[in-house]
Each structure stands twice: as C-alpha cells, then as structure tokens.
Amino acid sequence: MILTAPLAALGRWVLAALASVGRVTLFALDALSHILRPPFYPREFLNALMNIGWFSLPVVGLTAIFTGGALALQIYAGGQRFSAEAVVPQIVAIGMVRELGPVLVGLMVAARVTSSIAAEIATMKVTEQIDALVTLSTHPMKYLTAPRVLAGLITVPVLVGVGDVIGIWGGFLVGTGQLGFAPGTYIKNTWDFLEMADVVSSLVKGAAFGGIATVMGCYHGMQSGRGAQGVGRATKTSVAAAAVLILAANFLLTNLFFTS
Amino acid sequence: MIELNDVHKHFGPKTVLHGVNLTIPKGESMVVIGGSGTGKSVLLKCILGLMTPDAGTILLDGQDVARAERDAFLARFGMLFQGAALFDSLPVWQNVAFRLLRGSLARPKLEAREIAIEKLRRVGLKPDVADLYPAELSGGMQKRVGLARAIAAEPEIIFFDEPTTGLDPIMAGVINELIREIVVEMGATAMTITHDMSSVRAIADKVAMLHDGIIQWTGPVAEMDASPDPYVDQFIHGRAEGPIEAVR
Predict the structure, then answer these.
(1) Is residue A260 over pLDDT 70?
(2) Which of A4, A96, A160, A221 holds its CA 20 to 30 A away from the CA of A150?
C-alpha cells in the first residue's frame, strides 16, 4: 500500500493531464470547425483583428527594437573573443527571424491578448452573459471563440513579420551608431544572409503561436469557475499555459524546419 | 404548454432535482418559489437546454425539447436573467436588438434600432439611454433593459430569473408591474423563479413550491395563503420553524 500510493497518485496526475490535453484539443478542433461553418460574425472578427493585431503593435515594436539592439551588443561582445565581430548583421537577422521574433511576439501576445480574452470570456460566463447568448440563439463558440482564433491565426504572423523587421532595425541602429558598422554593409550582409525558409518558418511559427494564444484564452475563459477568484484563476492559467505551449511548439517547429 | 415529467438533475453527489413534475399551461404565468439553492435556476436552465437533465422529459407543446431544432426552439423564448446579463461591449440598443441584428430574425439596422427604442420606451426608459453602455446604467435600469431584450422579438414564452433581486422595494414593484403588464399584453406564457413574495403576488396566475428537489405544492396564487402544505405555509410567512430547515 505504501509503495503503490505514490504510483497511484502519479497515475491520477498523468490521467488528469492527458484528459486536459484531450479537452483542449477537442476545443481547438471545435473552434476551427466553427471558423469554417456559417453563420459568421464579421463585426466580432474585425474587433478581434484590431484588439489582437493593431493594439499589440506598440508592445511588439518596443520589445523587438530593444531585443534587436541587445542582440547586436551581445554578438559583438561575444564575437570579439574569437575575432568574429563582423557577423553581427547576419546573426542579428537570423536570430530575430528564426527565433526571437516569433517567440517574443508569441509571448507578448500571450501576456496581452490571452489574458484579456480569458478575463473577458470568464467574466461573461460568471455574469451569465454566455447563457444569455445561447438563449438569444447565438452559439458562444461561433460568436466568441471562432472570430478571436481566426484573428490570432491571421494577425500574429503579421506581428511577427513586423517584429522581425523592427528587431533587425534595432540591431542596425546599435551596429551603425555604436559599433562602427557602415550602414550599407550592414544592410547588404543582413539581406544576403537571410533565406526564404527563415522568413517562412518565422511566419508559420507566428500563426501557430497566434492559434495557441487565442485558443488558450478562449478555453480557460469558457472553463472559468465562479466569482472573481474563478476569473483570476482562468486568466492566470491561460497565460501560463499559452506561454509554455508557445515555447514547446517553438521547439517542435524549429526541429521540423531546421534539423532535416 | 410546457410539461416537465420526472425531471432529475444532480451535480456530483448532490441531487438538485429529484423528480420534478410541473405543467405550465399556454398563456399562464407560473411562479416557482423556493429557498436559495433549491434548484429553481437549474430547473429553468434545464427547460432552456442550458443544462441537460439526467432523467425525465421536458415537453414544449408536446414536443421533447431535447430533440427540438435549437434555433427554432430558442426563437420562441425570451429570458430576463437575475443580473440582467447585458453584454458589456455593446450599447444598450444593440443589447435589446441583439436577436434582430443577426440570425433568422435579422432585419435592417435602422429598423432594429427603432424596435429597440420602442421596447425601451415600453419598459419606461427614454430613447437617450439607447446609446449608453450597460456599465453606465443603475441596477434597476439594467433590469429594464434586460426586460426589453427579453421581449424584443415578441417571444411566446418568457422566463424571469429572480427579476427583483438587488432592487429597492419601489423599483422591485415597478419591475413586477411591468412584467405583469407585458405578459398580459403579449399573451405570453411566463415562468418566473423567485423567493420574493411581493413578486409572486404581483406576477403569478399559478404558484409552484420547489423544495428537496420536488414540487411540494402547486395551485392558483389565490389559494396560496390558504394552502394546507406546511412547506408553503412556512415559506410565505417567512417562519424559521417548520419542515424547511433554517440554517442559523
């Protein structure tokens, strides 16, 4: 009994975790199916586009420019150890486009958008607004989830593209203003080194992270418990889950794109 | 007509509905009374399909609601929620006209707005409220907007979930009168759940007492005060002593 108790506890934990994965997967598939089937709610979709895309631009831009600048400084300082300072433009470009751009934008969207979606939907659940939607013949998955997930799938790759460019520009500003690179050479080295596969992988990661961030916000909002505590827990869990899943998906996608 | 036959519902080990039988004739106003936590809201949500009963059948005009086509079924209902449940992100008129702006009952925006303003006027609100957001309204005004939304599509059946909770006695009286007027005017079938006895007397044609998961008594509101049922007697007189256990 003493020996089997920990195993039983571990088994229960594993089963609960697998059940959670199953529920989230079914929810995501349901959301995707509602994106494809009418009725559609274009006004809700446009609102979601603005909230997820347009209003995330300042935070994405600031994150990217500082990260690009810091990356240039780190590569220059590290490169000096083996006389490789000249690779700053290339490494900033590849680092931003392949990794830091998508991951940082994904995490920023998780912090800003996932939390907001989860809190909004959880509050709607607690105040019976979701029940009210049903009584008004409106499917909550169609009205609340599908427009947000579709907007996430479309806007986050765009945000990643913008973040990549601004991040490279941050590196350019530091490289040319502080580290003595010639502007023309810096741009040429960046442009020559980047490949289409780098850009495609960046945008695919953006779409995946946008899907994860919005699905987790909607799922945890819909599953919220009662009261302020329920809303708080839904918000916290959604952000933590989205961040971890984004990092895990980043690893899987990097493996898929770059280790063949 | 709405008929509930032997409806059961439990949450984990807790049984909330233990075989509810109730008939609400067409065009009548039924008020279900009972203490907090006795399953009144669960009963209402089971009829609307927001919750699925574990056993039993719910019939609407002889048709099992579990097998009914959802949109057509829900189009027959209007509902006033306990906290009004207005959509925070939409202005008042879009809340009222929600059903008229989308789905099978959709109509042009201007027409929907006109209907919304007319319904707001019907519940005693001025047209300038139409462009405010729910957060800018008092509790009583939110209830009125909720009522306007419930009647916007002229439903055959209207449900009222604790319509006077959180309102002062005067505003509660106003809402009760409005509900009664509207139900009579529209000839709608109404089901109200409440523990406010002033609401019961103002709204009900018939009363049903829910306790321990079953309907303990049902009858015309005029016979309620003379009911020999000890549960009804204790509840309507608000006595601490009686078959309903009062937690102190």
Answers:
(1) no
(2) A96
Domain segments of chain A: what residues? 40-258
Helix (H, G, I), strand (E, B) or coil at B15: strand
Q: Which amino acid is at B219?
A: G
Q: What is the third-level CATH fold of B1-71+155-165+189-248?
A: Rossmann fold (3.40.50)
Q: Give the gap in angstroms from C-alpha A142 to the nearest C-alpha of chain B.
A: 12
By the CB < 8 Å criterion, does B11 face chain A?
A: no
Q: Give the start-to-end residue ranges of the domains of chain B.
A: 1-71+155-165+189-248, 77-152
Q: Using CA atoms, how far apart are residues A160 and A96, in angstroms rounded to an integer? A: 10
CA-based nearest residue to B22, from B182, B208, B231, B190: B208
* Backbone phi, psi, residue A130, to 5°: -70, -40
Mean pLDDT over residues A116-140, rounded? 94
**B83 CB near a chain A CB, below 8 Å?**
yes
Tell me how far apart the terminal alpha carbons of chain B are, to the nearest angstrom.
40
The ipTM (two decimal places) reads 0.87
| Residue of B79, B89, B104 lying closest to A135 (CB–CB) | B79
DSSP H or E segment with residue B202: helix B197-203
* Residue A112, token pair as written in the block: 């800003």
